[in-house]
């Protein structure tokens, strides 16, 4: 019975440990004195945090025990993530003097990314045995967060409303400017028409007549010839 255990083939390089192969040896006549349970799946969004639980039930023996976490993914083989001794603060006892009944161990994972997806196994070594849980698989939810979509749509709607308002104000200003220029052009055309009409059709009442009497400037040039009178029309602007 003392040979019942999990045998691991581990490759160690510096501080990195990589499990190449694992073999579990159990004696058929030996009954397990405790059980290890894990939740099957943890769905999360990118960037969020999750806490993996490992529950050890019906631990009827006293003594030290240890907990180990392993991760297995499609990209790499299983490897040791975290190992620790049992913490009495995480265990509940039926009675103060009785054996430990249930223990819960947690593995927090912050800022989940695609590189952290995979199956996480909890292994508990206690009562002369090593038991593995069924594993908890971390999956990143497909698609975009609905709340993120709502924020994006609200932002797009706000930007569209601002653009429509700016366009409406611009059109209003352009229309006012066009109306002002059109009125000025019409006024200039009317003034030009009136001026041209006044030049082409002079008013008869504005014509004045004058008689000019030119006297000789020198007595030498005085002649007794008959003086002609010339009449000229003058237009008053």
UniProtKB/TrEMBL annotation:
**Record's subcellular location:** Cell membrane
Instruction: Quote the protein name from its UniProt record.
Output: Ig-like domain-containing protein
PANTHER family in UniProt = IMMUNE-TYPE RECEPTOR 5 PRECURSOR-RELATED (PTHR19433:SF133), T-CELL RECEPTOR ALPHA CHAIN V REGION-RELATED (PTHR19433)
Per the record's keyword annotation, is Transmembrane helix included, yes or no?
A: yes
- Tell me, which GO biological process terms does this entry list? immune system process; response to bacterium
What the entry lists under CDD domains is as follows: IgV
List, alphabetically, the Pfam families matched. Answer: V-set
Tell me which GO cellular component terms the UniProt record holds.
Answer: plasma membrane
Q: Which SMART domains match?
A: IG
What InterPro entries is this protein classified in? Ig-like_dom, Ig-like_dom_sf, Ig-like_fold, Ig_sub, Ig_V-set, TCR_complex_component
Q: Which organism is it from?
A: Mugilogobius chulae
Boundaries of each Ig-like domain copy? 32-124
The organism's lineage? Eukaryota, Metazoa, Chordata, Craniata, Vertebrata
Which keywords accompany this UniProt record?
Answer: Cell membrane, Disulfide bond, Glycoprotein, Immunity, Membrane, Signal, Transmembrane, Transmembrane helix
Q: Where are the transmembrane segments?
A: 148-172
Output the SUPFAM superfamilies linked to this UniProt entry: Immunoglobulin
Q: Does the keyword S-adenosyl-L-methionine apply?
A: no
């Amino acid at each position: 019975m003392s040979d019942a255990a999990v045998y691991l083939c581990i490759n160690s390089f510096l501080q990195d440990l990589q499990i190449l192969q694992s073999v579990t040896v159990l004696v058929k006549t030996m009954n397990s004195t405790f059980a290890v349970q894990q939740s099957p799946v943890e769905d999360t969004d990118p960037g969020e945090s999750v806490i993996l639980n490992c529950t050890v039930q019906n631990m009827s023996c006293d003594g030290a025990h240890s907990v180990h976490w392993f991760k297995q993914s499609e990209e790499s083989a299983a490897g040791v993530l975290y190992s620790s001794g049992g913490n009495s603060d995480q265990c509940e006892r039926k009675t103060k003097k009785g054996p430990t009944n249930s223990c819960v161990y947690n593995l927090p994972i912050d800022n989940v990314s695609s590189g952290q997806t995979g199956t996480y196994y909890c292994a508990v070594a206690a009562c002369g045995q090593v038991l593995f849980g069924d594993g908890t698989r971390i999956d990143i939810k497909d698609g975009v967060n609905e709340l993120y979509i709502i924020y994006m749509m609200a932002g797009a709607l706000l930007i569209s409303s601002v653009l429509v308002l700016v366009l409406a104000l611009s059109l209003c200003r352009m229309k006012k400017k066009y109306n002002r220029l059109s009125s000025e052009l019409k006024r200039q055309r009317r003034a030009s028409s009136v001026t041209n009409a006044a030049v082409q059709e002079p008013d008869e009442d504005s014509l004045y007549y004058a008689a000019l009497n030119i006297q000789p400037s020198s007595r030498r040039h005085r002649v007794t010839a008959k003086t002609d009178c010339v009449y000229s029309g003058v237009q008053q602007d």
